[in-house]
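Running this now, will post back.
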Amino acid sequence: RERERERERERERERKREREREKERERKDMGAWVLAPSLGVTTLVCCWLFHRIAGFRKRSVVVVLATILGWIITFSCVFMVPYDVLSTEILATQPSCMVDSDDAGLMLRGAEGGGENEAWDIKGNALWRATSGLLGVGRGEDTDSAGCDPPAPVVPYKVMVITWGILYWTAFFGTWLIYPLLISYVDMADFHFSERITATIKENIAIYGIMGAIAGIAALVLAVKNSLNFQGLVGIAIVLSNASGLLALVMLLGYGLIAVPRKIWRRSNQSLLLKQYHFKVITHHQAKEEAASNLNKTLKLVRSASEKVTSIHPYRPYVDQVIAECIPYGYDRFRVGEGDADVSSYDQIVRLRHKVRASIRQKLCTEVIYKMHVKKCLELEDVLACRDAAANASNHRIGVEMANLGSDISADPVAMDYRHVQGTGGHAPRRIPWCTRPRRLYPGARLIDSLEYYWKVYLQEMCYKGLAILCALLSILTMWSELTFWTVKINGPDMSIFSLLLDLNSKNVLAQLVICAPLIYMAFCSFYSLFKLKIFNLFRIKKYQQTDDRSLLFSAAWLARLIPPLSYNFLS
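Update: finished.
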C-alpha cells in the first residue's frame, strides 16, 4: 500500500508538471504574437499617411509597395523598443522565461557585458545588439530560475532576435542600395526599360564608388589589425551606417524639438493663423500663375520640336509620345512653336520629356495647394465669425442681466451695445455656417453640428495650447536626458528622467507607456524635420496628395536610415 501511494504521488507530480509545461507553451505562443497588434496599427498608420500625402490611384505599384514597406519597417522599429526593454528586463531577472535554458545562459552572458567578441558568438544576437537590442538587454542580476511569472506577455528571446535582424537589415539594404536606385529610376524619362536601368546605374555609380572606397579603407584597417573576417566587415558596415544616421539625427532632432511645440502653439492663435493663411494664399496664387506660364512655354517648345522633326525622322515616335502627354494640358492651343528646341539626339528628347513632366506636375500641384489654402482660409474665417458672434451674444446676456438688476446702463455706451447685438438677436448660433461645405441633412446632423461648433469655437484653441505645453515639456526632458546621459558612463548618478521613471516600475505594462511616449515624440520630431526639408525643391513632402514619387522614396530611405541611430540614442 505504501508503494502504491508513492506511485500515485509520483503520477500526480507528473500531471502537475505537464500542466505547467502546457501553460508555459501557451504563454510563449501568446508572447510570440504580442508584436502583431503593433504591426497592424503601424500598417494602418502608414496607409493613412500615404493616402494623405500621395494617394494610391496616382502611383505605380512599385512606388506604393516600396514606400509603405519602408515606413512600416521604420515605425515597427519604434514600437519594438518598448517590447525589447520590457522583455529583456524580465528575462534577465527570470531566466526560466526564456525559450530554453541555453538561450537564458547566452542572454545573461551578453547582459553582463562579456565584450563585443562574445556577442558575435551568439547566433542572431549580433544583429539585435547592433541596433536597439544592444542596450535593451537587462542587467542580468538577481536571477530567479525557480519559475517564470512575468507581469506582461513576454516576447520570446529568439523572436526578438529574429525580428530585430529582419527589421534592421531590411532597412540597411533598403536605405543604402535599393532606394537610391528606385529614386533615380522613377525620375528617368527614357522611353525604354533597359535605357532607364542604364541611366539609373550611371547616375548612382559615383555614389557607390565613394561608398566602395570607404569600405575598402575600412577593410584595409581590419587587415592591418588581423581582424579581416565576415564579422568584422559586418561590424564596420553597422558602425558607418549608424554614424551617418546619428549625424543627421542630431540636426533633425535638434530642429524638431523646438519647431514642433512652437508650431502647435501658433496654431492655437486662430487670428494669427488666419493672417498666415492670407499670406500663403497670395504666395500660392503667384506660384500657380508662374507654373501655368512655365507650362505654356514648355508646350510651345514641344510644338517647336514637333515642327523640326519630320514624319520620316527616326526620332518622330519619341516626339509623338511627348506630344501625347501634352495634349490633355492645352497643347492644341498653340499652333506655332516658340523657342529653340534641340532634337539632334536621343538624350535631348529625353530631357525635353523630363521637362514636360516636371512642368505638368508643378502646375497640377500648385493649383491643388492654392485651392486647399483658399478653402482653409474661408473655413477659418467662418470659425472666427462664429466665435465673435458667441462673444457678442455673451456680452448681450451680461447687459440684459445688468438691466434686470436695475443698473443704469443708459449712460454706459458699451453696455448699451450689449443690448443690440447685430446679426445674433442675443443668441449665438450652435452651428458653423460653412461657406465651403453643404449643410448636413442626415439624421443626427444637429448633434454633429453642435459638437463641431463647440470644438471649433471653444475647445480647439485650449487643446492646442495644452498640447504645445506638453510637447515643450517633453522637449525639455529630452534635451536634459541628452545632456546628462554621460554621468552613468563615469559611474555617476543617473540623471535621466525617463530612466528614473522606468526604474521605478520596470516590469509593468505602464513601463511600456513610459518608454513609448518619449520615443514616439522623438521620432515624430525627427520625421517632422525630415518632411519639412526642401532640398533645392527636389524632395518635398506635400499634403493633399501632391507628393511626387521621388520625395516618397526619399522619405522612406531616410526614415530607414534614421531609426537604428534614434533607437540607440534613446536607449543610451
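The first helix runs from residue 2 to 32. More later if anyone needs it.
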